[in-house]
Amino acid sequence: MFPYHHYCLDLTNVDYPNRLEKAITQIIKDDFTERFCISLVDRSVRSGNVHVFVHKMEGTDLKEIMKVIPLSYVLHSYFMLHEVFGRAVTETEKKTGRPSSWVTILDLKGLNLSDFLNPLSSPVQLARLVVKVWSEYFSDNMCKLLIVNPPGIVSLMFKISKFIMDSRTANQLAFLSDVSELHNYLEPQAIPVEYGGTWRDDSGYAKPPESCTRPLQPVTSSDYRGVSRGLDFPV
């Protein structure tokens, strides 16, 4: 069963903000990084005043993930992720006195486009909800989504994007024909080595460090919700 974590914190504790952030970070680490290929939220990685986050879709089977993780849990972790983004933005703006934001590098290499052609499919529903959370609550936090390695024809990607987002949000997308174009938006220290920059994650999280992300944990039938460990039938 997919672990869902609850953290009870004493709101009167003077260290509450720090404890809350640690709890949020733990939720993301426990409930998100196993099934999604993402970078750590590292506040030190910036291009000017812009923080950078990496999300890769290669190997991500959303249909299988939905069998393991309830949609509500995914959205919960996504809310928490943006909460951390917002806190980083506030901290950076306070330190520098200048506006700050986040940019996400979304690598679509290996994405199965057929999963998104049906507007009623689970992947499309998930994408719609994720985009809704972003556009309605956190659009000021994340100013740009830089899409690299888009599969197939870029025009088809634009058509698919119309299924899952409004026009204002779609304008925040940038489809890059080559990863070298990341340099048009970001400084080298905020671009992973894998994409031609100098950013490495040597914390032990990323494998390899040059990717700034970690490999996905494959989904097996024993991971499905409702399947008892050691038994071959649902309970």
From TrEMBL:
InterPro entries: CRAL-TRIO_dom, CRAL-TRIO_dom_sf, SEC14/CRAL-TRIO_domain. PROSITE patterns: CRAL_TRIO (PS50191). This is CRAL-TRIO domain-containing protein. Residues 204-235 are annotated as: Disordered. Residues 28-203 form the CRAL-TRIO domain. Pfam families: CRAL_TRIO. SUPFAM superfamilies: CRAL/TRIO domain. One of its GO terms (cellular component) is cytoplasm. It comes from Angiostrongylus costaricensis (Nematode worm).
